[in-house]
User: Fold this.
Amino acid sequence: MIPRTTGLPKDGLPSALHAPLAGALTWWLPGLGHIYLGQRTRGLVLMVTITATFWSGIAIGGVRDTVDPDKRKLWFVAQLCSGGNTVAAYVLNLGVTSYSARTGAPVRPSHWMSADVGVHYTGIAGLLNLLVIFDVVGRVDSGPSHRRAKRPLRPESS
Amino acid sequence: MTTALTDFVLGAIELAPAQRQLLMLPLCLSIAVVYKTMRCDSVREVPLESLVLWGTLVIGMYAVGIGLWVLYSIMV
Assistant:
């Protein structure tokens, strides 16, 4: 059984906005939505695991060949599910490319085997974050109904 | 510091085929930890449950790989 959140954050927001906000926070930084819902340890474990997986992929394959929307469109879509990490890596990629063009410094391409492993790591990190987004939205959505289901039924008046 | 960061971002690691296969292990561990962190009622259960799932994933993937290799060897 999926454990549910014990309560929504009391931040003055309308309750309908909690699920999209938690999902958006998780998209931006894995685990942040769980921390927002008060599940700090769970959120930190997710954040460290997914972020470490993503940046390990970058370290293995190099940023230029790993986060590349032109050559690897579908993988880039998967990577985009881990939004903040992918945006940071893509900005780095653009920075390296423009620096290389400006100064004429050669940038050695990665070996295809390293680039492939790097792409798999980052893509799977993105897809795992997609699961985490579904999980955090599910926790917000089913919280009240879960509590409702446990409430004893009132006898119907005839 | 700058050189280390540049190496980290630009320098891809040279991999031998066997090393490529070994890199499956941390990836499977990551999948197991994320999955079990979402599914377990208590975070205390996550380490043990993740290890069990990790072992299952690795053994399962090697079993599928060996099975396909045997099938390929028989057919070709």
User: Anything to note?
Assistant: The helical segments of chain B are 2-10, 17-22, 24-39, 46-75. The first helix of chain B runs from residue 2 to 10. The CA atoms of residues 64 and 70 of chain B lie 10 Å apart. The mean pLDDT of chain B is 88.
